[in-house]
User: What shape does this take?
Amino acid sequence: MIKRIVTLTVLVPALLSTAVSAAEAHPAPRATADVVTLTYDASDAGQWAGPIEQAVQNWNNAVHNVRLEPTSTPGEADYVYEATSGWPQTTLGPIFPGGSGEVQLGQQAVDEGYDATRITAHETGHILGLPDDYSGPCSEIMSGHGPGTSCTNAKPDAAEAAQVDKNYADGATAMLRNHHHQIVIDVWTGRVLTGSH
Assistant: This one.
C-alpha cells in the first residue's frame, strides 16, 4: 500500500507537468472574431446625452463582436449623434471604423410621445446594420414605433444581438467589404422614407 502511494506521489506531479507543457505547446484556440470598436461623438446631442449613454450601454451589454465607445478626438468619430427638430434618421450600416455614420435624434418623435432611450437604441441599431421591422413586438428594438408610445423597451432582443454579432463576426476582414449605405428616416407615425447616401 505504501509503495502505491509513493508511486502516485511521483506520478501525479509528473503527469501535471506534462499536461501544463502540452497546454503551453498548444495554446487555447483564439476567438474567431476580433472585437470591432466603433467610436461616436455626442457633442451635438444636447438633451439626448442620457438616452445615448443608456442605449450604448444596452447594446454593449447585448453584443460581443462590436463595442461602442465615445470618441476621445471629436471630428474623428466613426459616427455622430445629433439632436434635431425633425424626425429621427440614421445611416444604415453596418458602420466600421473610419466610417461616417450619422444619427439624427429628432424631437418630433419625442413630441409624439415616444421614449427617447428607445428611439436612440433603435437608431443605433441602424448604425449596426439592422433594418426596421415595424410589425415586430415591443421586445424588438427595431420594431420602432410599431408597438406604440406605451412601448419603452430600449434593449435589443437575442435575435437582434445575434444579427449584429454576425454583421461584425469577421472583425477586420468585414471592414474590407464594400458597404452601400443609405439614410433611414424613421417617421414614428407610420410613414417610412428611405434615400440613398
About this structure: The helical segments are 2-25, 49-62, 107-111, 116-127, 158-167, 172-175. Confidence is low (pLDDT under 50) at residues 1-32, 190-197. The CA atoms of residues 92 and 126 lie 5 Å apart.
